[in-house]
Inverse folding.
């Protein structure tokens, strides 16, 4: 099956053609925004990292390089402040190594001054946008697509309608040779034994169990006394076991074998279904998967989350009839037909698959129409990240 | 006779989940790939809770999402409420 997309020199396919400013640190965010706001068609990716410690520095650099070299990105400006821990020169070098022909520039605010950084940054982006607007879509094989799977603002309908239907769409995409990623490791607690059975090899099975155990080990000390992953509210709502609760989230991965486990923002080698170790928070979780190469996101919501993403379209799906009525303006696929007993999970799964392909071919999503650009990078140290 | 709506997520599942509230004697109605099916409910079952659609023996897997969400701690009849009173988790600390 074919999709209308941008074929990049590195062989990857892009479904959008964005020009981005990548600030290397929180303190460069405002200037990055100022530059991007001055140029129609450009977007800034502001975040709270950059002067973090330990693994978080490597993470920020890896994510920035992953986003700068992303096939949905037609040109990138790396914007350093100068004194940050995050090495903006290294980030730019990595982008250049992965994508030698992609327009790429780097500016350091403490070297050139604020006004000059804004002036030069704006000129750089204008040139990149002009070049990008000349690029054309072509018919390419759907097998080059990777779909990131996410949920946010979940409720009982997520596990009953939207997520199972998304699982059907994922099976369909993988059958066409495409790939998918999931990353909510903390929500997989309780399903390690079930996911390990779906591993493509013994080594992958071991990585799945280790990754979920590590997340559980990090989370347990944060729980309040008596607090449990399966709450009394969950049980009153009808969830019987932790496996059932976690499967309500995990079922959006469908039934394909899990071919690889990678760290947050790391590009996998394997095709098929990949676990990207990440977080239960939707926005930073999307970053982990997009930096790892996903070009499009399928996002299920029960209560109705408006989030979008700056460089990848987000296809929003709800299984809640009331949410669809109230928030139809942010929903791309209505899975409430399952909850109402009008359609079965397979039919809606096919609708999601068709919508994802249409969006990859250029159809704007609802969050793109609004211009929502939610962005954040997950850090391990959280509020203690600064040094 | 009142029909109450439920969802069977996968054809291999031996439970369906109510998106309605049911009282003993009501029928649950759910869509399968072979068309709609109906089954009388034996207990009062709240919204979001599960009902067995087949005979489930003690120790047998409770299947939802085409996966085992636990095991029956006693025999369960079709139409019976399936919850913590007749299901055991395989996960330590995973409730009951």
């Amino acid at each position: 099956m074919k999709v209308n997309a941008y074929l990049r020199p590195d062989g990857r396919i892009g479904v959008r053609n964005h020009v981005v400013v990548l600030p290397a640190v929180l303190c460069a965010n405002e200037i990055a925004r100022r530059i991007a706001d001055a140029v129609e068609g450009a977007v800034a990716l502001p975040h709270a990292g950059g002067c973090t410690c330990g693994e978080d520095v490597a993470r920020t650099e890896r994510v920035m390089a992953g986003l700068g070299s992303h096939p949905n990105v037609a040109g990138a400006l790396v914007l350093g402040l100068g004194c940050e821990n995050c090495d903006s020169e290294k980030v730019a070098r990595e982008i250049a190594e992965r994508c030698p022909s992609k327009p790429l520039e780097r500016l350091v605010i403490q070297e050139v001054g604020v006004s000059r950084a804004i002036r030069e940054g704006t000129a750089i982006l204008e040139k990149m946008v002009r070049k990008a607007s000349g690029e054309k879509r072509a018919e390419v094989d759907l097998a080059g697509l990777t779909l990131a799977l996410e949920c946010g603002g979940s409720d009982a309908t997520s596990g009953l309608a939207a997520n199972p239907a998304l699982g059907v769409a994922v099976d369909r995409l993988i059958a066409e040779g495409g790939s998918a990623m999931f990353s909510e490791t903390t929500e997989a607690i309780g399903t390690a034994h079930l996911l390990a059975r779906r591993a493509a090899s013994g080594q992958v099975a071991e990585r799945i169990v280790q990754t979920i155990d590590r997340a559980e080990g990090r989370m347990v000390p944060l729980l309040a006394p008596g607090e449990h992953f399966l709450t009394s509210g969950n049980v009153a709502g009808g969830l019987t076991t932790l496996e059932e609760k976690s499967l309500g989230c995990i079922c959006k991965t469908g039934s394909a074998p899990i071919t690889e486990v990678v760290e947050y923002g790391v590009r996998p080698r394997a095709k098929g279904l990949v676990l990207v170790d990440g977080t239960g928070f939707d926005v930073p979780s999307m970053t982990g998967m997009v930096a790892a190469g996903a070009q499009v996101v399928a996002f299920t919501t029960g209560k109705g989350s408006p989030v979008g993403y700056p460089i990848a379209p987000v296809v929003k799906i709800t299984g809640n009839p009331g949410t669809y009525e109230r928030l139809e303006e942010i929903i791309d696929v209505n899975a409430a037909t399952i909850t109402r007993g009008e359609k079965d999970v397979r039919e809606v799964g096919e609708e999601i698959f068709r919508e994802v392909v249409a969006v990859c071919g250029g159809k704007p999503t609802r969050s793109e129409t609004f211009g929502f650009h939610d962005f954040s990078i997950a850090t391990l140290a959280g509020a203690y990240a600064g040094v | 006779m009142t029909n109450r709506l439920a969802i069977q997520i996968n054809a291999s599942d031996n439970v369906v989940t109510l998106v309605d509230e049911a009282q003993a004697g009501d029928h649950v109605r759910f869509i399968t790939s072979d068309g709609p099916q109906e089954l009388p409910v034996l207990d009062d079952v709240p919204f979001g809770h599960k009902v067995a659609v087949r005979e489930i023996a003690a120790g047998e897997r409770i299947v939802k999402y085409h996966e085992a969400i636990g095991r029956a701690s006693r025999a369960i009849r079709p139409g019976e409420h399936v919850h913590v009173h007749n299901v055991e988790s395989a996960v330590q600390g995973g409730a009951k």
